[in-house]
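Project standup — Tuesday

K.O.: blocked on the structure for the chain from last sprint. Re-posting the sequence here as requested.
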Amino acid sequence: MLIILVSFLPFLSAEDRRTIPLDLYLIIDDSEAFQNAKDNAIAWVNEQVLDRLLMEGDSVTIWTAGDSARILYSGEISTLDAKKDIQDTLNSIEPEGKTTDFIGALRELELVLSLTPQDRLPYSVLVTASARNLWPALTGNSQSLLRWFRTEKYERWQALIIAPGINQRVSQAASTYMDSMR
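H.V.: unblocked you, prediction finished:
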């Protein structure tokens, strides 16, 4: 369990036949700066995240973080067509904001996470054209949410994969391990 959590599920796929439902939270840069990176970044999200991770019973929430954060999609994977709907939604994003509101999206994400049952596995991904766009979120009130993350960097964009709520799970796994050593 600890290994899965610490590695942020990089190799998790439907083929793993996991039994814990996944709640995927995507926050996508919706600023003009993202325009040149959009196609490559969305293709990566579709292939590496949606196709590899999602299976029936999982849920997906997508925010765009342009001038203000807004939910673009929220739903459960009940059929294979649901994945296509999500991919179509992502492909339809037209970056137009002058700024990025990752702080607003992360604030909404924190609220959603506080209402998420413990028997579900949260997995969050922020996609942006520039680390500079993330700076206010990294240095602001969202630091606790962003404590455990890893970065995927590409030529024109990057993804921040967040493990929200992992502190408690890591503590529980460590405690269980230490108890087993007695």
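K.O.: great, moving the ticket to review. The radius of gyration is 16 Å. Helices lie at 2-6, 38-53, 80-91, 102-114, 131-139, 166-180.
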